[in-house]
């Protein structure tokens, strides 16, 4: 969905027909009041309580009235963890691609064919959807093309403890895998962790290296405000659930925009921070092109990311963006 900007506007694969008229999870509505610091849950060792309070205030301020944001973060050096709506389920879009690769490595015991390695690099670094389809098929029994069986993907989810993540019921549209901020934080913890029964060191390093090599125009989102001298692994995802716009009372051009990242600043040893920000209900303003709904989600993510990253690394210089945030496509 991010291979080029115009292609992003049509959603994920052949997603639209089965979900175009689905009632969104947020249809019940929430008040327009700003999120309060007390609604942000932060925990840490006793000597880090001031950082807890600062993160609560700054994350709440960054979210503002957009309550359809979910946040989960952890910082290994301080032990601080913060969450907001972290157990709410969201469509993954291309954010699921590291999970697809992790599942394949888990299934194949860390050994991929040259063709699979080429597809993996294209899927993560360029967010190529065709490559994602190829690897998704490698995880699926497609003997019946109308009823895929993603048992291998689900086996990885079980082994990794990602209990709130599940493929779309038809199991064909990988981008409609539903997940939570809490589960995505577990995934990042798995990638940053030590050897375990799920992924060995070589597999974890392989995935993170590809995420560190994501092309410059897709490095927006959760890395916003990270230190200039830092190793940052990122994967973003976005989709517009349908193109029906305001004609459908249950889907007014809603965009889902997500971002995950893990950051290791130079001079900070091996300690890393991980950040997950998921958004939905990014509506297209009247009279505007669909891009503006997508951009709304990007702006929300980067506001939260800047609050978190500047609080975690106040004494280190911020990174200067190599490229500005996404701009409206010309085609």
Report on this structure.
The protein has 331 residues and is of the alpha+beta class. The protein has one domain: 3-Layer(aba) Sandwich (Beta-lactamase). It has ten helices and eight strands. The strands form two sheets. A six-stranded antiparallel sheet has the order 1-3-2-8-7-6, sandwiched between helices. It has a two-stranded antiparallel ribbon with strand order 4-5. The two termini are 15 Å apart.
Short synopsis of the structure:
With 331 residues, the chain is an alpha+beta fold. It has helices at residues 5-8, 16-19, 49-63, 97-107, 114-125, 129-138, 151-160, 181-192, 201-212, 291-312, and strands at 41-43, 69-75, 81-84, 90-91, 178-179, 230-240, 255-265, 273-282.
